[in-house]
Specification:
homodimer; alpha/beta; Rossmann fold; 2 domains; three-stranded parallel sheet; 9 helices; 39% helix; globular
Chain lengths: 271, 271
């Protein structure tokens, strides 16, 4: 069975619209990029469309050299008309930490700045990484998390690690296991889980044999196979368990939450 | 069997002494406290002794009101003669986040600042929380971590959550499960683990029935029972599995690492 995230998406969108109607100014998101490759360009185009759909001001700044990136990040961090800064990644020639040193955590709507990631450990999710937050919202929407065994496959800094921390928060209290390429007996571990989050970025990783009839499977993967976008979970899994679709599952909620972060920042800045 | 951490302690101490001999100035640690209770006072006394044992300059500042705490933290953060700042906690009347806003992450030798905790997710452990780091050092000393199933009992911000992140780092690559009070079938989970880290702060939590003959058990607990300091692991467990002692196990290494962080900071500050 596929999990339909559309009602949740509508709920988030309605809440954003409602909150925006209470602002005096239109919130603004700026994307900063440098030497974007074709997939980055296409991502930015769809981001622009989403921003317009939500009624946000949107701008793309393409730097002509790497020091211009850092200068722009410093300026945008100070700019009182800008609520959120999106940085395409990886940025060529630039160390990620250098990017963060020039980006205010207060406009880090992606939740990638070390300060915001550390805040998660204190239970403060003002800017959580959007994809991890999307998984949490979907789970809270479809099940009771407390006491459940959650197995996360993948230990990335954008999903696996922050998600583990978020699911341990007292109001959620899942028992969390993080698995990865070095994990032994992965199938045995996932078969015993109540919830499986597939976030390894590997098409076809989760098979029928790895789930049980009560499993809830959240598919975070976005892989291109034969020109088609597929997740980390094989289609066959939905014959047995509940699975979020790809595309149109976690990604859809992630986009909405990125926009919600811009609005949240605007509220904090008294827009 | 008890795990003897003395050789590891000596190794860390020798490395610190060696590195200190290469400095031009003596590194300095300042502890800031406010309305300390008896256990905080006794902790600070033992910290002072440890600092002297390692040859560090040490000072205790007792604030007379809460705003003086914050002012002192700002001053010490700027003070070029100070390498590390220790803040007793919890501080009465003061929100923890307010403390962090006034404390430079560059002198946060305890590794409690959100910035330093977030850096762990990027694999940067310059200032990791000392107790979590002690567990990692002990494990690296007694076993090969890669591919092992590690079960951490306890999800604190000082041990459980940062430790999970640290054990997932690629050079360690443990499969990590974090359990807590809401976990179902704790004994079943721990029995299947290669490594158990008991960090719940509950005396007698880990019993013989929860381990197997090959288990390595790291006891992080420090509990006072009938005036005696005991860990989270029952004595009987050492009849079957390998266990670190309390006192004289994790705590001993933690203290050494706190001092090591001061030296590390001094090196960075070109002392």
């Amino acid at each position: 069975m596929l999990i339909d995230v559309k009602p949740l998406y509508s709920e988030i969108k309605n809440s954003i619209m409602d909150r925006m109607s209470k602002l005096k100014k239109v919130p603004k998101l700026v994307a900063v990029t440098y030497k974007p490759d074709p997939s980055t360009i296409s991502y930015l185009k769809s981001q622009e469309k989403a921003a317009k759909r939500f009624g946000l001001d949107y701008e793309i700044f393409e730097a002509s050299n790497s020091s211009e990136v850092l200068e722009k990040l410093r300026n945008l961090s100070e700019d009182k008309s800008v609520n959120g800064i999106f940085v395409t990644h990886p940025l060529p020639e630039l160390d990620e930490m250098l990017v963060f040193e020039n980006l205010s955590p207060e406009k880090d709507i992606e939740g990638r700045h070390p300060y915001n990631l550390g805040m998660l450990m204190y239970g403060n999710e003002f800017f959580a990484p959007c994809t991890a937050e999307a998984v949490v919202k979907i789970l809270e929407n479809v099940t009771e998390i407390t006491g459940k065994n959650v197995v996360i496959i993948g230990r990335s800094t954008t999903v696996g690690k922050p998600l583990a921390t978020m699911l341990l928060r007292r109001d959620r209290s899942a028992t969390v296991t993080v698995c990865h390429t070095k994990t032994k007996n992965l199938a045995e571990i996932t078969r015993n889980a109540d919830i499986i989050v597939a976030a390894a970025g590997k098409a076809g990783l989760v098979t029928k044999e790895m789930v049980n009839a009560d499993s809830i499977v959240i598919d975070v993967g976005i892989n291109v196979v034969d020109g088609k976008i597929v997740g980390d979970v094989k289609e066959e899994v939905s014959e047995i368990a509940k699975v979020t679709p790809v595309p149109g599952g976690v990604g859809r909620i992630t986009t909405a939450l990125l926009m919600e972060h811009v609005v949240k920042s605007a509220e904090k800045m008294n827009f």
